Amino acid sequence: MTADSDLPPFAQVVRDHWVVVFRLLAHLTGNDHDAEELTQETFLRAWQRWTKVQPGTKPRAWLMRIARNAHVDLYRRQQKVRFRPLVDDRGSLANEPSRGPEVSEEAASVRAALQELPETARLVFLLRVEGELSFAEIAEELETTEEAARWHMHQARTKLLARMTPKE
């Protein structure tokens, strides 16, 4: 990276994008613990590569790609070694912090609905909503066309609305 680079200081990138990266990973993993770990890993990987970032790179899109790759790596590791959670006598997970009222039924329902989406539609939806990426940035990230990204977003919205609309 040259001195005349248009990239902001890395500390500013962390401040500006930490929450967005965490929210994306929380949706992808389905739990906050893995999302926290992957968010830290994402920013560590980003820091290690920061001096090689090309001027003109959009930090948010770049971080979303790193986060997505970190999630894929975690998924691959979990496929190699499967751990079953330990269950105590009450039927709850041992050593699991209790979930308070901050996790509402609606949030759980949305999370479940997101998990039912096809992978590409879910990823496009999360990159657009949580990552606030443009369709052009999403298309570049997923190596597809902007029109395909828009179609996947439409598919995700339609399926989420159908799932979330109360049936009479």
Fold and architecture overview:
- This protein has 168 residues and is mostly helical.
- The protein has two domains: 1-83, Orthogonal Bundle (Rna Polymerase Sigma Factor, Chain: A), CATH 1.10.1740; 103-168, Winged helix-like DNA-binding domain superfamily/Winged helix DNA-binding domain (Arc Repressor Mutant, subunit A, Orthogonal Bundle), CATH 1.10.10.10.
- Helices cover 65% and strands 0% of the residues.
- It is built from seven helices and no strands.
- It has helices at residues 10-29, 32-49, 59-80, 105-116, 119-129, 135-142, 146-164.
- Helix 1 (10-29) packs antiparallel against helix 2, helix 1 (10-29) crosses helix 3 and helix 4 crosses helix 7.
- The N and C termini lie far apart (59 Å).
Q: Name the CATH architecture of the largest domain.
A: Orthogonal Bundle
Spatial gap, N to C terminus: 59 Å
Mean pLDDT: 78
Computed Rg: 18 Å
Tally of structural domains: 2
Beta-strand residue percentage: under 5%
